[in-house]
UniProtKB/TrEMBL annotation:
Top-rank taxon, per record: Bacteria
Domain VOC: 2-129
Lineage, uppermost ranks: Bacteria, Pseudomonadati, Pseudomonadota, Alphaproteobacteria, Hyphomicrobiales
Gene3D superfamilies: 2,3-Dihydroxybiphenyl 1,2-Dioxygenase, domain 1
Name the UniProt record assigns to this protein: VOC family protein
Organism encoding this protein: Mesorhizobium cantuariense
Length: 138
């Protein structure tokens, strides 16, 4: 699998470094006074300083549950997802949108999921699968 790159707006680089580096455990890559790169489970995420970037709220429905649009995140194997979920649940400073749960239980593509917001209000989803072959199962 090849990594993807995503550039996204943030209001403050210092709080973004703390959240992605310390809370999520991402390695920090190159940076400048206006952006910083993170290794999010092997993918290059570039946080760009945009203090006044407005995000229009919007929602979608997945398996009958409202989810924020847009959002980004990572697909993980279940053991990695469980470690992340446990790490996040142990903190009292997480902005939860959807606590850890299982979607499509007993169906093809069954997956664990959780949604959080970063300090800039960006919605992140982390999915866990028992096998990566299940990502596109239907």
């Amino acid at each position: 699998m090849t990594p993807f790159h995503l550039a996204f707006p943030v209001r403050d680089l210092d709080e973004t470094r703390v959240f992605y580096g310390q809370v999520l455990g991402c390695a920090i890559g190159r940076s400048s006074t206006t952006w910083v790169d993170f290794d999010l489970f092997g993918h290059q995420m570039s946080a760009h300083l945009r203090p006044r970037a407005a995000q229009a709220p919007s929602d979608g429905k997945v398996d009958g549950i409202t989810v924020p649009i847009p959002h980004f995140g990572a697909v993980l194997l279940m053991d990695d997802w469980q470690r992340l979920a446990t790490r996040l649940e142990a903190r009292d400073d997480i902005d939860w949108l959807e606590r850890p749960m299982v979607r499509f239980k007993g169906e093809p593509g069954e997956q664990a999921t959780l949604f959080i917001r970063d300090p800039s209000g960006n919605a992140l989803e982390f999915k866990g699968f028992r096998s990566l072959e299940q990502i596109f199962a239907h």
